[in-house]
């Protein structure tokens, strides 16, 4: 099976102290829901470190980087740019077209932090709204990625993990990956 073209997420803007948790969650959501990498503004170093730590512990592959040139990153992207904004076209109206484009080209998903300049709207091939209502950019990213991958990201296998979560009805169980299959079998027997 041929690999799909890359999906990268660009966090556009970061206000240290105010956006730390939200920026980190953009990265964690991108990782967990199928993107190949996240790009943070260069002043989001703590978010970068946290996402790299989670990737090291729970597996990858997943890339994390920073840039001091957000607009330049968008302009130089060789693929399609999707900007998530409450003012965009409804995700349910464009999801098939975006999926079709992604079969052929890499996708850059731009997720705003602070006010996004009009230049980003103009640079995007798709300005996409999830509900066209105010809500969390993390929620918008999660819904968009799920629509883009049509749910396939939920069955992703992770490599090079130090820890694996065993799905359970109640409780919490985290084991070494070498123990995961026998732990899951044992939980299924009870």
Question: How would you portray this structure in words?
Answer:
The structure is a single chain. This protein is α/β, with parallel strands linked by helices. The protein has two domains: 7-159, Alpha/beta knot; 162-190, no CATH class. It is 41% helix and 22% strand. The protein contains seven helices and eight strands; from the N terminus they run βαβαβαβαβαβαββα. The chain has helices spanning 20-32, 45-58, 70-76, 91-102, 118-123, 137-149, 177-189, and strands spanning 7-12, 37-41, 63-67, 80-90, 107-112, 126-129, 164-165, 174-175. It has a six-stranded parallel β-sheet with strand order 3-2-1-5-4-6, sandwiched between helices. Strands 7-8 form a two-stranded antiparallel ribbon. α1 packs parallel to α2, α1 runs parallel beside α6 and α4 (91-102) packs across α6. The longest helix has 14 residues, at 45-58. The chain starts with 6 loop residues before the first strand and ends with a helix.
Compose a concise summary of this entry.
The protein is α/β, with parallel strands linked by helices and 190 residues long. It has helices spanning 20-32, 45-58, 70-76, 91-102, 118-123, 137-149, 177-189; strands at 7-12, 37-41, 63-67, 80-90, 107-112, 126-129, 164-165, 174-175.
């Amino acid at each position: 099976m041929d690999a799909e073209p890359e999906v990268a997420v660009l966090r556009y803007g970061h206000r240290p102290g105010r956006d730390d948790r939200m920026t980190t969650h953009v990265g964690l959501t991108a990782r967990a829901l199928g993107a190949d990498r996240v790009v943070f503004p260069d002043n989001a170093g703590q978010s970068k470190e946290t996402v790299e730590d989670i990737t090291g512990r729970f597996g990858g592959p997943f890339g994390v980087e920073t840039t001091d040139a957000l607009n330049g990153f968008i302009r130089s992207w060789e693929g399609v740019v999707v900007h998530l904004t409450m003012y965009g076209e409804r995700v349910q109206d464009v999801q098939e077209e975006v999926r079709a484009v992604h079969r052929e080209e890499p996708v850059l998903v731009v997720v705003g932090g602070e006010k996004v300049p009009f230049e980003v709207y103009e640079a995007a091939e798709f300005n996409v709204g999830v509900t066209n209502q105010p809500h969390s950019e993390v929620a918008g990213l999660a819904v968009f990625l799920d629509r883009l991958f049509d749910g396939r990201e939920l069955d992703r296998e992770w490599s090079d993990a130090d820890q694996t979560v065993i799905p359970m009805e109640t409780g919490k169980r985290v084991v070494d990956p070498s123990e995961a299959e026998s732990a899951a079998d044992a939980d299924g027997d009870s």
